[in-house]
């Protein structure tokens, strides 16, 4: 029942977001739409071990910074989808992982600037996943998402460099603002 109450507003928000996005796309000049389509194709072709970073020169000739990337790690598909849409609309490259092992593999093969990490997952908890992530990327900023705030786990997360904690159900605007503010300090560009 709790999941239904959580998923219902998420589905509504996603629907509204998609409608707005399509309306926004339809109002753009054809040349701009084609350019963004080419950028999207470049982003989705990242299959090599070393990620292709699209420079901001390709997307915005005024700033010469790479586009920020974010990894969303959560076993709930609806939450991953909601956060993906939210950050793609901000111009970020978004990766998803369904569990801790997939998150570690993504960080091993891809440059990630920010990680939103669920604390409770089936294969390993967020602390174990973060320990594995830190072997490959010590500098990515991390925020944890949790439905249950275990003080011992939260303290362990802080020792591993977690900056923020969000409780489910979370306010997506608060998450977005916190992530974007954190990334302002990094050498990357989020629109």
From TrEMBL:
Keyword Phosphoprotein included in the entry's annotation: yes
Keywords, sorted A to Z: Phosphoprotein
SMART domains xrefs: REC (SM00448)
UniProt cross-references to CDD domains, sorted A to Z: REC
Name of the molecule in the record: Response regulator
Record-listed 4-aspartylphosphate modification sites: 118
Stored SUPFAM superfamilies: CheY-like (SSF52172)
Entry-linked Gene3D superfamilies: 3.40.50.2300
Chain ranges of the Response regulatory domain: 69-183
Domain of life: Bacteria
Pfam families noted in UniProt: Response_reg
């Amino acid at each position: 029942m709790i999941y239904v109450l959580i998923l219902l507003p998420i589905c509504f928000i996603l629907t509204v977001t998609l409608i707005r996005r399509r309306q926004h796309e339809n109002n753009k000049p054809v040349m701009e739409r084609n350019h963004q389509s080419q950028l999207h194709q470049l982003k989705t072709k990242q299959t090599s071990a070393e990620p292709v970073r699209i420079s901001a020169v390709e997307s915005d000739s005024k700033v010469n910074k790479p586009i920020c990337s974010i990894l969303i790690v959560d076993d709930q598909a609806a939450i991953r989808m909601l956060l993906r849409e939210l950050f793609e609309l901000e111009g970020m490259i978004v990766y998803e992982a369904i569990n801790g092992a997939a998150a570690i593999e993504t960080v091993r093969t891809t440059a990630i600037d920010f990680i939103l990490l669920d604390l409770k997952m089936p294969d390993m908890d967020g602390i174990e996943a973060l320990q594995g992530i830190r072997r490959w990327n010590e500098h990515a900023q991390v925020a944890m998402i949790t439905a249950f705030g275990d003080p011992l786990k939260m303290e362990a997360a802080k020792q591993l460099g977690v900056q923020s904690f969000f409780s489910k159900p979370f306010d997506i605007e608060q998450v977005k603002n916190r992530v974007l503010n954190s990334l302002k300090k990094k050498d990357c560009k989020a629109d």
